[in-house]
Design a protein that fits this description.
The complex is a heterotrimer of chains A (about 160), B (about 625) and C (about 290).
Chain A lengths: L2 H4 L2 E6 L5 H8 L13 E2 L8 E5 L2 E2 L3 H9 L6 E5 H6 L9 E3 L9 E3 L6 H32 L2 H9 L1
Chain B lengths: L1 H19 L3 H26 L4 E3 L5 H23 L4 H20 L9 E3 L1 H31 L7 H20 L3 H19 L5 H32 L4 H9 L5 H14 L7 H5 L5 H10 L1 H16 L3 H22 L4 H22 L2 H32 L10 H4 L1 H15 L4 H15 L3 H26 L14 H37 L9 H27 L3 E2 L14 E3 L5 E3 L13 H27 L1
Antiparallel strand pairs in B: 1-2, 4-5
Helix pairs in contact in B: 1-2, 1-6, 2-5, 3-4, 3-7, 4-8, 5-6, 5-12, 5-16, 5-21, 6-7, 7-8, 8-10, 10-13, 10-14, 10-23, 12-16, 13-14, 13-15, 13-16, 14-15, 14-20, 14-23, 15-16, 15-20, 16-18, 16-19, 16-21, 18-20, 18-21, 19-20
Chain C lengths: L1 H31 L9 H11 L3 E2 L4 H20 L4 H22 L2 H32 L4 H4 L11 H14 L27 H26 L4 H24 L5 H26 L2
Helix pairs in contact in C: 1-3, 1-8, 1-9, 2-8, 3-4, 3-8, 4-5, 5-7, 5-10, 7-8, 7-10, 8-9
Classes of the chains: A alpha/beta (about 160), B mainly alpha (about 625), C mainly alpha (about 290).
């Protein structure tokens, strides 16, 4: 069970960010902050990732993209909204094309406000998300156990996929 | 002896019969039964002659004149057809040969002593089996195939009976080549196969077909000139026209470099090695069964047969070096050229040229190991390649295309054909299957005989081989989302032929140690007069069989795995804009766009034209230098 | 009996040693880049985590190929450590890689297909040199069997310098190190959404990683063969040479940017065609 907290892999998606937060996210991986010392890898592939970092607000164009990327991540997974735009839409909230924060389309687990969010804050957000990840993993194991008892794994999965 | 006569004349008889009968059903039944009879006869022949071989002499004054007159008859056909289509090179070439032979017969015919006209040993037996069994299966396949062919090609005049008749005549001629010992007879059968190939390539009578058929004819006739000169040389110098006598002279130390080089030259042309390779590529316009039978599994094997036959006298000689270099370079260039092919039949053609190149190189090197590898290559290649050709033929009728790009996701569309194709491809290059075993032995033989240049060609060529087969295999196994299974239209004959060839491809890998022990190794004992060590150690053979078992278990395990494993199915990753069907995505204008995954052909880097031009220059230079040296040293 | 012990030891210990090597690689890489880096055990954490993830696929067969990939890689490694025939080992390795490629093809996604094609191109690039390594050993020792090669009286490197350099060159491809990591890169090196592994996740991805550990170990075994001779000292030198080679590859990884495919293919073939060829040629000449 402890492995999730030791190896969180990230996918980073830029919604309609002004790039401020994106640069700070990347800054976390540089020698100064070196997120990799916690085992964090920026994978760029939803199928490998555990943590979905989103910067910028959600708009009409990208809502489906975000949703699809989220769906392509295997369980357990967490969503971290980076910056005030991803949290609530920020100053863009009244624009005609903006839906608002990430929570309009995805269940967000951790909010990291700031404009731009500082690397320390982002690292803190990622570290906090590990606890959520752990919880979700426990929940996932229990759920499959329960289902296995009922012998219904197959049917449930099928209905989920179908 | 009666079996020999049966093999030679029964196909001729059937050929005549199917040509006359115009009722398709009756013709089909006769063809199928005859093909089975031929296959059975070839097996019977093998059983009867395997241990003791067969030698035979026909005492007859007029027979050589009869053969000569048949030669002249064929020349006449070529001249008439050449004049009709305004192609004058072929008539000229044939006019060079027949008068020469006639002159030879007139002036030296009396002095010839021919001990055995027919000579059968284990090498002939192997080829008889291939011709009989593979040829028989292909003939059966043809019955259904030609029906479909004319359904899909309404513009071509239906000449199925002609096609079948030629196939049978061809089978008879092939049997003739591999059991003849008298070189004038062999030359006659050799010319018959050339003519059959010419007629089949021109089957559709389109301009392209006729052009290509004449190219094939001209190239083969150039080769035949080498054959005629060899006969003349042997006859005038050694007073014989026997293959076995030539070999005996060579092994006992008489210099036979010139005739060996000339005969090998004929073989190189027949086996479509590089300066001549264009004819085989052009031959792909013919209906698929002829590509499978003539242009991959049997007729071109006549070319390598003669080189393997000559191996003991080629070994270590300059003629052998010539043959090995031409074969090696052909293998490398043809393998590289195959990478850029999108047309499945063209790819198969290049691959055939490449593999024949390897066999030719083995023959040219001529050591025990090399020839062992060459003989196994002949067997495995004939079976796998004909399976591939026939599969492509059936797929073409079902998909309406033979482009490899259109075979994307074949495993979903036509699973049966995908399985056949996969077996064929695996048989051509994958680890536990036959071709690879022979390549393994060839590699060792090339090192042991110090042929480093040929060795390099093999090493680099194998890498290219790996590339083009695997990318085709990948295309087949790709699981295309939501694709419908097409209604397949595989006829019973096609099932029979494909199934039998697939079983042979796999089965041969299991019994190859037996083939090696029982057929190939005793062959060498006869030639070198001593028993020789096994090529593959028992341990390695067992490991190969283990791997084979592992690979064959795969489909079964896969089936169980699919039933048990219960992965969540998600869409494939397309940057988050997959439209949910794994086949299209949302483009930047919000519109749906079809995804198209092309294979990698590297056609800018490895262009077919440049490669073959380079190859032709190099191999033509090698051939002309060696042949001129050989002739010049004598004259 | 001894062979079986070695094979069993390989099957059991290779993932541990391979994982540790990979962990050291990541630590060293981080240090070379002026970072602190993850713990040495990080690769194990990653793999265990991947096993805890949900299993997911685009279709029902793709993961199956990976299981066969792993089995074949272990088989190849076992062949190597049981002292098998080098050519057979190369063929088995090819077979294994083909399973991986077919798995990626089967998923039929644009990224994994490109990864598969690039992997195939890389195979075409390194294959001649790998054969030349086997050929070189055969000429020097008179046998293709690993068990005979390790019994060499003297160190083989002086006879095979060109082949050794050529092997180091293509080892960069096989170890998936920059500049030749076109089809699938390591840890933080992103590359077209990780090429051949794009559509594999969870436990299947973990299997690919484990297979890679197994593979790395017998690839280093090839390096070992160049240095070993029949004495404890020889074994020591061999192991030291393996570690040094591995360090060199990490250094190369961190010193070069990814190359274009043309460079990978042509340079590998040029290296094999010059260094390898010349070495074999000279060996043949010197052969009594």
């Amino acid at each position: 069970m402890p492995f999730f907290s030791k190896s969180p892999w990230i996918i980073h998606y830029d919604g309609s960010s002004c790039n401020g937060c994106d640069i700070e996210v990347l800054a976390c991986l540089t020698p100064v902050y070196d997120l990799e010392r916690f085992g964090v890898i920026n994978t760029g592939n939803p199928k490998h990732a555990d943590i979905f970092l989103i910067t910028g607000a959600i708009n009409e164009q990208n809502k489906e993209v975000v949703w699809q990327i989220y769906n392509q991540m295997p369980h357990p997974k967490v969503v971290v909204a980076i910056g005030i735009c991803a949290t609530s839409g920020g100053i863009f909230v009244d624009c005609y094309n903006i839906l608002g924060g990430v929570n309009k389309v995805l269940p967000v687990d951790i909010y990291v406000p700031g404009c731009a969010a500082r690397p320390e804050a982002i690292i803190d957000g990622v570290v906090q998300s590990l606890a959520v990840l752990k919880e979700k993993r426990i929940a996932m194991v229990q759920r499959t156990k329960k289902l296995r008892v009922k012998g219904a794994v197959k049917n449930v999965r099928k209905s989920k996929n179908g | 002896m009666s079996v020999v006569l049966f093999l030679l004349f029964f196909p001729l008889l059937v050929g005549g019969l199917v040509y006359v009968i115009r009722n398709a059903t009756v013709r089909g039944i006769i063809t199928r039964i005859a093909a089975l009879f031929i296959a059975a006869a070839s097996i019977l022949f093998a059983v009867m002659t395997l241990n003791n071989g067969l030698v035979f002499h026909i005492e007859s004054e007029w027979l050589s004149w009869f053969v000569l007159s048949l030669d002249a008859g064929m020349a006449l056909i070529i001249i008439v057809l050449g004049l009709k289509h305004k192609k004058y090179l072929a008539p000229v070439l044939t006019l060079l040969q027949v008068p020469l032979l006639a002159w030879f017969e007139l002036t030296h015919g009396e002095k010839m002593t021919v001990g055995n006209d027919i000579f059968v040993d284990r090498l002939s037996v192997i080829l008889v089996l291939i011709i009989g069994i593979v040829g028989g299966l292909i003939t059966i396949y043809t019955v259904s195939y030609m029906k479909d062919y004319h359904y899909h090609h309404q513009e071509t005049k239906d000449r199925t009976s002609f096609f079948l008749a030629i196939l049978f005549i061809f089978l008879s001629a092939m049997f003739g080549i591999v059991i003849s010992n008298n070189l004038t007879w062999m030359y006659f059968f050799w010319e018959v196969t050339t003519l059959c190939s010419f007629l089949l390539i021109g089957y559709t009578r389109t301009k392209e077909a006729i052009d290509n058929s004449f190219t094939a004819l001209v190239m083969n006739l150039i080769g035949s000139i080498g054959f005629v000169l060899a006969i003349l040389y042997i006859g005038m110098n050694f007073n014989t026209v026997e293959m076995t006598s030539l070999l005996k002279l060579g092994i006992n130390g008489t210099s036979v470099v010139v005739p060996a080089a000339l005969l090998a030259f004929a073989g190189i042309a027949k086996a479509a090695q590089l300066p001549f390779s264009n004819w085989l590529l052009g031959a792909m316009v013919a209906p698929t069964p002829s590509s499978a039978l003539l242009h991959s599994s049997t007729m071109v094997k006549a070319g390598v047969f003669i080189i393997i036959r000559l191996a003991p006298v080629l070994s270590g000689q300059i003629s052998g070096l010539m043959v090995a270099l031409v074969g090696g370079i052909t293998f490398l260039i043809a393998s590289l050229a195959a990478i850029s092919q999108m047309d499945a039949k063209k790819l198969l053609a290049w691959s055939t040229i490449a593999n024949l190149g390897l066999i030719v190189a083995c023959g040219g090197i001529g050591t025990y190991e090399a020839v062992w590898a060459g003989m196994l290559l002949i067997i495995f290649h004939a079976v796998s390649k004909s399976l591939l050709f026939l599969s492509v033929g059936t797929i073409e009728h079902n998909l309406g295309s033979r482009s490899i790009e259109d075979m994307h996701g074949l495993i979903m569309k036509l699973p049966e054909m995908a399985v056949f194709l996969t077996i064929g491809i695996a048989g051509m290059f994958l680890a536990p299957f036959g071709m690879l075993i022979s390549k393994w032995a060839a590699l060792r033989a090339f090192i042991d005989s110090n042929n480093i240049v040929v060795l390099m060609a093999l090493v680099f060529g194998s890498a290219a081989t790996l590339f083009y087969w695997t990318k085709w295999l990948g295309k087949i196994v790709a699981v295309l989302g939501r694709s419908e299974r097409l209604k397949n239209d595989i006829k019973r004959d096609e099932w029979f032929a494909l199934g039998a060839l697939a079983i042979l491809t796999i089965g041969l890998c299991f019994i190859f140690p037996v083939i090696s022990n029982q057929i190939i190794e005793p062959y060498f004992e006869n030639i070198y007069g001593q028993s020789l060590p096994s090529i593959l150690s028992a341990g390695n053979t067992h490991l190969m069989l283990l791997m084979l078992g592992m690979v064959l278990l795969m489909p079964i395990v896969m089936y169980i795995f699919i039933q048990l494993k219960d992965d969540k199915i998600v869409t494939s990753y397309m940057g988050g804009v997959n439209r949910g069907d794994n086949r299209s995505f949302v483009d930047s204008f919000g519109k749906s766009k079809e995804m198209y995954l092309s294979n990698w052909y590297m056609d800018k880097v490895l262009s077919e034209k440049t490669l073959s031009a380079v190859g032709i220059v190099i191999t033509a230079a090698i051939l002309s230098v060696v042949l001129l040296m050989a002739l010049g040293g004598v004259l | 009996m001894k062979t079986w012990i070695i094979v069993c030891a390989y099957i059991l210990l290779a993932p541990i040693v391979g994982g540790l090597l990979s962990g050291i690689d990541r630590k060293l890489t981080a240090r070379m880049q002026g970072r602190f880096g993850p713990p040495v055990l990080q690769p194990f954490y990653d793999v265990f985590k991947l096993f805890e993830k949900e299993s997911m696929a685009v279709n029902r067969v793709q993961n199956f190929y990976i299981i066969f990939f792993l089995i074949s890689i272990i088989f190849t490694g076992a062949l190597f450590f049981s002292g098998g025939d080098l050519l057979l080992i190369i063929f088995a390795l090819t077979l294994a890689n083909i399973f991986l490629i077919l798995g990626a093809y089967s998923a039929n996604s644009p990224y994994s297909s490109i990864g598969a094609l690039r992997e195939l191109m890389q195979m075409m690039a390194y294959e001649p040199m790998v054969f030349l390594v086997a050929i070189g050993f055969y000429i020097v020792s008179g046998s293709f069997a690993v068990s005979d090669i390790v019994k060499s009286e003297t160190i083989m490197l002086p006879s095979l310098p060109g082949i050794f350099i050529g092997f180091l060159y293509i080892l960069t491809i096989k170890l998936r190190k920059s500049p030749f990591d076109l089809s699938m890169s390591h840890h933080a090196h992103q590359e077209i959404v990780k090429g051949i592994t794009t559509e594999f996740s969870g436990s299947t991805l973990a299997l690919i990683e484990i297979a890679h550990w197994y593979e790395n170990l017998f690839l280093l075994g090839f390096v070992f063969l160049f240095f070993v001779f029949l004495s404890p000292l020889g074994i020591g030198i061999g192991i030291a040479a393996c570690l040094l080679t591995y360090f060199l590859e990490i250094l190369i990884d961190n010193s070069f940017a990814r190359a274009k495919w043309q460079v990978v293919l042509s340079s590998s073939w040029v290296v094999a065609g010059t260094l390898g060829f010349a070495n074999v040629l000279i060996l043949q000449w010197l052969k009594p």
